[in-house]
Design goal:
single chain, about 80 residues, alpha+beta, three-stranded antiparallel beta sheet, two-stranded antiparallel ribbon, 5 strands
Length: about 80
């Protein structure tokens, strides 16, 4: 998701995977695969940079520690 500003100054998140095209007419028009159109203040170059930065962060995140190990924990030994 990328954060953009519409022409009225409202911030909104867009799913960058749904962006089909970006045009400058003179504002930036983002057309999504579902047909929705969003006029934003950011330039096409800025939107592209937002997408690249988002994907770079997403694909370089460290793996989430689920607490699961490759091997099951050892059974407790001894008595209490």
């Amino acid at each position: 998701m990328i954060l953009v500003t519409d022409v009225n100054g409202h911030k909104r998140y867009l799913n960058s995977d749904l962006i089909e095209s970006i045009e400058q007419v003179p504002e930036t028009l983002i057309i999504l695969a579902n047909g929705h159109r969003h006029m934003v203040r950011e330039s096409p170059e800025e939107v592209t940079t937002l997408i690249v930065d988002f994907r770079r962060r997403w694909f370089t995140l460290p793996p989430v520690n689920t607490g699961l190990a490759d091997e099951p924990p050892e059974a407790p030994t001894g008595t209490q």
